Amino acid sequence: MLEPSNNNELPPIPGKRYFTIGEVAELCAVKPHVLRYWEQEFPQLKPVKRRGNRRYYQHKDVLMIRQIRTLLYEDGFTIGGARQRMSGQQDDDGSNGFKRHLVRQLRSELEEVLAILKS
Fold it and tell me: Which of 63, 83, 95, 119 is least enclosed, having the fewest CB within 10 Å?
């Protein structure tokens, strides 16, 4: 999973509601065609499509893409293994591990913002 130590490699996620595929590609350090491929492979990844079939990703989608990227590129999972990890990820209490990851990621970003505001 994407831990705060890995966040230094990727730029912070701006506080926007929607991101284009090009913006997400830059935020996650992957190419747009890879994002389109991952949409086919990971059923959880469903960006909003508007006029002209243009994709608009939300903040949660960007976090999910970063988690997929970490599983594939850093942890060495195959696409099938990462898909299984994303869909069947359970903590000891039965809750979804992805939600826990989101909370950790958001907390880390908020701590960064707080540090900037204090300085």
Answer: 119
- Check residue 52 and report its DSSP letter: G
Question: What is the extent of the structural domain holding 57?
Answer: 4-118
Cite the beta strand spans of the chain per DSSP E: 48-50, 54-56
Q: How many domains does the chain have?
A: 1
End-to-end CA distance of the chain, in Å? Answer: 30
For residue 58, the domain's CATH number is 1.10.1660.10
Instruction: State if pTM tops 0.70.
Output: no
CA distances from 78 to 25, 31, 61, 110, 113 (A): 20, 18, 20, 32, 34
Which one-letter DSSP state was computed for residue 74? I
